[in-house]
Amino acid sequence: METSANELVRLNQQLLESIAAGDWETYAALCDPTISAFEPEARGQLVEGMDFHKFYFDLGVGKGPVNTTMCSPHVRLMGDVAVVSYVRLVQRLDPAGAPVTARGEETRVWQRKNGTWRHVHFHRSAGA
Description:
Helices cover 26% and strands 48% of the residues.
């Protein structure tokens, strides 16, 4: 089964949009239940499984529009594993209603299992 870099960028964008929308069903469908992550919220600890992430979804999404952009995504395919790296820009409104943009560096690992790509690991850094 041939996979293109475009397909992985599309899946990754769908994942980011599910995060921005607080859409747990889509997020959970794209992720492997044993997902692991290093992210700023985990304070340097390796997080495993979905519970840590579900906590933030359960808090609800912020008010107002959110736009997520992957800048210069780079995809490395290695058989049934792919690494997608990029800078993520998130545009939203601050509490006063002014537009703000946050940025961070992300690397996401996808694995094809039974013909379906699942998000299995990510490393997210706070913007420099």
